[in-house]
Amino acid sequence: MRGLIGVAGFFLIALIPHTVAFDPLDPNGNITIKWDVMSWTPDGYVATVTMNNFQMYRHIMTPGWTLGWTWAKKEVIWSMVGAQTTEQGDCSKFKGNIPHCCKKNPTVVDLLPGTPYNQQFTNCCKGGVLASWGQDPQSSVSAFQVSVGQAGTTNKTVKLPKNFTLLGPGPGYTCGPAKIVPPTKFFTPDLRRKTQALMTWNVTCTYSQFLARKHPSCCVSMSSFYNETITTCPSCACGCENRNKCIKSDSKLLSVVGVNTPRKDNAPLIQCTHHMCPIRVHWHVKLNYKDYWRVKLTVTNFNYRINYTQWTLVVQHPNLNNVTQVFSFDYKPLVPYQSINDTGMFYGMKFYNDLLMEAGPSGTVQSEVLLQKDKETFSFNQGWAFPRKVYFNGDECMLPPPDTYPYLPNSAHRSPAAFTTLLFSLLFLFTILF
């Protein structure tokens, strides 16, 4: 019996790392890091490292990605183009040419915009910001070139790096081992000749909100035209550990120079609220027409230190298969399972509202959505008009308990004045007729 329990426990533990990183709304989402060995050198190789964000709605925002690994042998980095390591390490044993990095486990970051052209590489120099595939495929790629020394000089002698790590910019990503794949093929500029890398390996990194943080980073509140009740975010929805460090909206500290400057550790400065969330999403059922209904979406930033660039809002609701028009946001249906179309991504229009400003008067973006009714399924009863899931920047938001949703009244409230008016009207009609 103990043996069976032990075996079952082993399989359960073995399954946990895979299940926590699975996103049902983006089952194929990942960040793939590809190494292409482009040429051999006297003591190693020159490789192009490309980072592709295949996640539909989760991006890497400022201060950007950080990539790390452990060398399999005694490799060093002679030079880099389009990126740099954060530390050089001990290179004292080298005479003459000094390597760019001698650490066993280098840490690499992207270069900043405005880097001189002779230090740039294709798709580099964005400060580590990486857009999501669903929002902006052209900006979802980052790349750099690295010259590796004291490594193998053939396909059989090169040893793949190990223990890859990815911060984006905080924890949450888990990277698998490097795997050799068929060499990448390239077309020449005239598209008449095809070349290929000498050797290629891939590393796949997946995201888990469970690993990224203990509590949600956003919450959802609700209201409707047919009920005066406003369902607020749950109390302490994002944890109340920082309640003593929050700041009131009328505090004089907000006028201090530099208070809005982001810190290296991304420590937030959150406005004091009962939910203690940096982001609140409000869903308001605004109007009801004969064949359509209208929803107002509002996203509010309560963090005084972060401007959310290229933000995304993902909503799951059964009527999103009949979206007629979206005002002041861009919209894209997400169909991870071809037979089900109940999920959509909202995001800001470029150069208009794709930047959600820090907490304050400008820290809000909003839009309205017009949806066509499906008479077989549409209803305002039992909270049907409210979302099933909401994600902001790829992290799931905490919804209120279902029994607190604004409910549809069973019957209209009777007014004594209206009843009296109706009675006199009937008496007057009776007098005329009889």
TrEMBL record:
Localization of this protein: Cell membrane
Main location group: membrane
UniProt signal peptide: 1-21
Entry keyword annotation includes Nucleotide-binding: no
GO BP terms, alphabetized: cellulose microfibril organization; plant-type cell wall cellulose biosynthetic process
Cellular component annotations (GO), alphabetically ordered: plasma membrane; side of membrane
UniProt keyword list: Glycoprotein, GPI-anchor, Lipoprotein, Membrane, Signal
Pfam families listed in its UniProt record: COB_C, COBRA
Domain COBRA C-terminal: start-end pairs: 217-406
Coiled-coil ranges (or none): none
Membrane disposition: Lipid-anchor; GPI-anchor
InterPro entries: COB_C, COBRA_pln
Family named by the database record: Belongs to the COBRA family.
Protein name: COBRA-like protein
Organism annotation: Solanum tuberosum
Gene for this chain: LOC102604326
